Structures are given as structure tokens and as C-alpha cells.
Amino acid sequence: MSLHEYAGKKAPKSILENIPQLISDYYTKIPDIENPAHMVSFGTSGHRGCASKNSFNEDHILAMAQAVAEFHLEKKHSKLFLGMDTHALSTPAHRTTLEVLAANGVTTYYAKDFGYTPTPVISHAILTHEDSDGIVITPSHNPPSDGGFKYNFSDGGPADESITKLIEQRANEILENNLDAVRVLDLDDALASGHLVAYDYITPYVEDLVNVIDMEAIKKSGIKIAADAMGGSGLDYYKAIKEKYDLNMEIFNDSPDFTFSFMHCDKDGKIRMDCSSPYAMAGLIDLKENFDIAFGNDTDFDRHGIVTKSKGLLNPNHYLSVAIDYLAKNRNFDGLGVGKTLVSSSMIDRVVKDNGKEVFETPVGFKWFVKPFIDKQIYFGGEESAGASFLRKNGEVWSTDKDGIILNLLSAEILATTKNDPGIYYDSLIEKFGEPVYGRLDASANVEQKAALKNLTPEDIKQDTLAGEKIENIITKADNGASIGGLKVVTQNGWFAIRPSGTEDIYKIYGESFKGQEHLSLIQTEAQEIAKSIFNNI
Q1: What is the pTM of this model?
Q2: What pLDDT is recorded for position 44?
Q3: Which of the following CATH numbers is that of domain 437-536: 2.60.40.420, 3.30.310.50, 3.30.420.40, 3.40.50.720?
């Protein structure tokens, strides 16, 4: 896809979201139950939609909140932790959710003063309180027009498909029956019900950071840090972290702006709070010479973006490799492995093997790391899309959802203790293991084509070589036995994976080569030819 003329440029006023209209649409537009696009659909990160497109309206939240309330009560959980990010639709959705949960008698902890709460903080709260679960109202890094609703189970992580499918089906059943099953109070009555608890999420999370990050080393180093809150849900957290640990840290974009007018446009010209995009992060990248290390987060703070003087914005795969190696060498995580998604860089495999540890490769989605974290199989779980978490210093679980805050602070710890920023650190890995070239291609695919790709088997690959190398492995199931929803082909120095998108009419080809760009291009070309041959047989 060619770059949009706005890519990397400050968002022009002409594309800013009409917030009053968006909020009006939330309350006034009604989903058409005959239109599948208007119904509740839980993907890898919950239900997402837009009020103006009839896919994220009050009816949806009433139905989903009621479905979660019923599930919560059925499981006999004692409390539910509720958080929201700074998307405009999150505020009315948060209110609606409170009104439903209170009416159902669910003891709900919400941020005092109706503040914002990052996704990892909800996970951290669930794990530090028994018999609890949570809801995060966020569409992650999606554009300002969007809203999202995600359920986290009592293990602190994103609920697995067996749970989200139940919630999705129940919510749609409620919609189809004119919301008759919904119990709801107006907000004043909900607040007076005794079921809603205003809670300080910030203090316990910030004070606990010393048990996962060497905050004293960062403080003593005096390194100059830039923290870009990107107008997101953790804006007050960076303020508290700076004050608590007396860090030499300057904070940017630390107040809500529902239009996100301070953002630079992504490659397609849209406003997208994607801290892994060099276009969206152009503003922070421009400041890199003024700071020893800089970092930003997406709107719900579950993703990280690291900016160094040496490299600018680090490729997420590069930073994951650095973090994994550093933690292996600077924590006592003996006997524990590393979780990675099947489309993450093979540099991770080489780093993990060099540290005498085991790789657990999973399908895409952070939910696949929850059980390995809980079962003490892995000390680190990470996705190529800049989402990761890791264990406390004592080997206990910190969060079972992505935590962009601790990944960002770890970059400062790495610089403080090694005197090298993560970009320079990655260069040392290249010297040792070689330099991979990674890429992703997106192409159009209809429903039938996506279904064919999702159900591929090793037998569908007729060739025995890829880009001139012998095929060593063809993977359709991850190490945990779960289907990867596509196919991965591996050689000694390269690989590709084909996966259909769960939310768009496209398929994705991920690829990597340790032999250079020309070899990667050849891998991608052959992968595209394989996809075409599969489509021809439909």
C-alpha cells in the first residue's frame, strides 16, 4: 500500500472526528439485528465498532454488560474491576456498563473521579485480588471514531474463545429480544446502590513497580526520559511514576483530547494511536536527540513503542529480542521459557536458545500466554505487534495481559544498567546471530478465500523448497496444539506465514529472512503464488 499524503504529518483539522455527533450516534442509532455487521462480535481483543456505523451503540453495551454480569454471577466472582481508555465512546460506554452492573448486583470497582485505567492495570488488579474478573472499555490503538469492550477472566488475561463465545452469543440473544433481559439503573441510583466502589487504581500499581523493574537503577542513572502518554489512559500513571521514583522524565500529551488532534497520521492517512508505527510516532521521533530514551503507548497502554537516539523507533521484533535476552541475563528465571507468536521474528528463537531456554510458539493473540504465565512455563510473552509482559523479579506473575508501561520502563532500566540503549543492544545480537529482514504484506480476500486459508493443511503445500532452501517444517498447529488459523512454512534461513484477517476482507503474509531483502522478496513472491493456487482450487 502506498503512503498517504498525510502519513507522518500532524493531523489536519479536516479529518478530526466530530465528537458531539459521535456521542449522539451512541445514544440514538439502533443496530439492525438482520445485519451481521451490527451484531456483537468478539475478536482477539473483544468487540470493537463505531457508533456512527451502528456497531458500537448503547444497545450493544447494555447487551454485553448484561451478558458479562450474568457470567460473573454464575462464576460466583466477588468483585469486578472496570477500566476505560480515552476514546470518546469509552466514557458513555463506561457509564452504561456501570448502570447495568449495579442493577445486577455486581460489586464493581471503577476508577475514582471516573478516571482512566490502562488494560494492564486491570489485569494487575485482578491478579492481586481473589475471585475477581474485569472489563476494559477500549478499542486499543484504533481511530478516535471507534469503541471497544473487552472481558478479562479471573486469571487476569483476555478471556479465551470458549468464554467470549458465550458472552457474544448471549449478548446477541439479548439484542434479538429487544433488550428485555437487561437490568439497568440510572447512574445516580447505581452510585447509591452500594454495588459501585470508587477505587484508587494508580497507587497500588505504581508502588508495586519496584517488584518488576529496577526503578532505583533508573533513578540513580539520571538518564533523561521522554514519556509520551499519547493522550491515553495511563496519562496520570506516568505523572505518578515520575513523582514516586523521582525520575528525570518529561511527559508529553498528558491530557485527554478526544479528537487526538496532536497525533501524526499513520501510513494510510488516518489518526491511529499506534505506538509501533513510525508515522504515528513521528512527533516523538523528532525529539529523540533531546533525550537518552523515549517511549510512548497506545490508548489503553497495553502496547509499547521505544525510541532511541541510535535507531529512532525500534522495530517491535527487535525490542522483544532485546528484552528477552536482557531479562534472561539479569533475572533469576531458571527453568522458564519464552512465549512468542508464530509470526514473531526468528531472532527470538536464536536468542532464547543461546540462553539455554525453550520457545513456546503460539497462535496470534495474547490470550495464549495466560496459562503459560500462570503455570510458570514462561517468564516472557510477546507479540510482534508490540505487546508483551513478563514476570516479577521473584518469578511470580505480574500481569497476564500486555503491559506497555513495564516494557517501556524496562528500556530505561536496560540503558541505566548496561549503558547501551536497546537499539545498540540489538546490534550486539545481530553480530552474534545474523541480521533478519522482516516484512508483512496484506492482500484482498473474500469470505470463501479467507475460509480456505484458515483451514490449510501441510498437504496443501506441494513444493519441497522455498526461495531456494529446503522446507524444514510446515506448521498449522502451535506448540500448545491450537490451530494457528493459517499456515507457516519454515526453512533454515527464512519463513512465511499466511493468515486471514478476523476483522477485514484481507489476508496477511508475514515473512522473514536471515539472508537479506532479496531473499525475503523471493519468499514473499512464492507465498503469494501459493495463496493464488489455493484460491484457484476453491
Answers
A1: 0.95
A2: 72
A3: 3.30.310.50
